[in-house]
Amino acid sequence: MPGPFPGRVVRVHSEKSVGNSTHQVDAPTVREMLSRGMQSLTGAKTDRDAWATFFDPKDVVGIKLNCSGAPDICSAPDVVAGIAENLVALGIPAKNIYLYERFQDQVASVHYDRFVPAGVNIFAAETRRGSIGSYDPNTYVETNFFGEEDTRSNMIRLITERFTKIVNVPNMKDHGAAGVTGCLKNIAYGSFSNVARSHSGAKTNTLSFIGTLANVEPLRSRTVLQIMDGLRGVWHGGPFSTDARFRFYPKTMMFGTDPVAIDRLLLDIIENKRKAEGALSIWDRSMDHVRQGPLDPRYGAFIREPGHIEFAGKLGLGVYDLARIQTTSIEV
């Protein structure tokens, strides 16, 4: 990160991609969106050449899911299956492809095994919450936020020892502490242990922690492709999706190698939706609008830190300035 296309984002939209009332994804449309997005991003004339821009048959590929809102809002199985199918078509054995996430219960609720090619691995770092065996003891970020006992966050061992490349597949979601859950938060918080400690009470340290984690090697250099699944999204109450009132349907996918550029566009998508719904701005910093309890769009549980995206840009992870972000829009 930011990869070979800093500041470049391809947005693909299709009204056919998901039904507002049925909530169902149309698989053929999703595959067309994947094809158009990848070819536009890379300039390739075929799907195979587009994927070959980033991968070759010798790679071991991790596909970073987002399952915190599962099973209703997550990296859509049809999107993930389309990615895996293109990798297999390139000559990567299914056994060398891993769908990965932190928590077993969230991943299991989606049933990805019913969609992806046979032999693709489905991996959760914590089969039991808090278990540490799947994390690398030698690759970590250590910092003390609130005087917590465990001040270390370790990277998933598969990233340091097995994967050669990673595809990041986040959603378009609001986040009570970080402002939004996009590329950066998905790849950072989803690849390390013990990260929820960064927010407590009304205070959150997501401003600096998200970019700091994403910047750690080998995660930074092995995350070569960002495919944001914005078919369905969450405009309040994220990263979870416990209340259907706060779901919406952007029917959009975004492609790039630059997580900062994609997340910068996501900020406006979430902010504009919240504004249209009369919700509190993600940029609001008043303690008067912080409240614990039932979900209410007029309040937040934390002082949000959407500035984490600009912070990550200052670390060199991508382009934050809208004037320097080149966006290509495609309608399917």
Helix content: 25-40%
Point out poorly predicted stretches.
Answer: none
Number of domains: 1
Residue-averaged pLDDT: 96
Q: Please tally the helical runs, counting DSSP H or I stretches of 4 or more residues.
A: 10
SS strand fraction: 15-25%
Computed over alpha carbons, the radius of gyration is 18 Å
Outline type: globular
Elements, N to C (H/E): EHHEHEHEEEHEEEHEEHHEEEHHE
What is the end-to-end distance? 28 Å
Sheet with the most strands? Answer: 11 strands, mixed
DSSP, total strands: 15
Structural class, please?
alpha/beta
Question: Which helices and strands, and how do they pair?
Answer:
Blueprint: E1 8-13, H1 27-42, H2 47-52, E2 61-64, H3 77-89, E3 97-103, H4 104-108, E4 121-126, E5 135-142, E6 152-156, H5 157-161, E7 165-168, E8 171-175, E9 179-181, H6 183-189, E10 199-200, E11 203-204, H7 206-214, H8 219-222, E12 223-234, E13 247-248, E14 252-256, H9 259-276, H10 308-314, E15 326-331
Parallel strand pairs: 1-15, 2-3, 2-7, 3-4, 7-12, 8-12
Antiparallel strand pairs: 1-14, 5-6, 8-9, 10-11, 12-13, 12-14
Question: In brief, what are we looking at here?
Answer:
By secondary structure, the chain is of the alpha/beta class. The protein has helices spanning 27-42, 47-52, 77-89, 104-108, 157-161, 183-189, 206-214, 219-222, 259-276, 308-314; strands at residues 8-13, 61-64, 97-103, 121-126, 135-142, 152-156, 165-168, 171-175, 179-181, 199-200, 203-204, 223-234, 247-248, 252-256, 326-331.
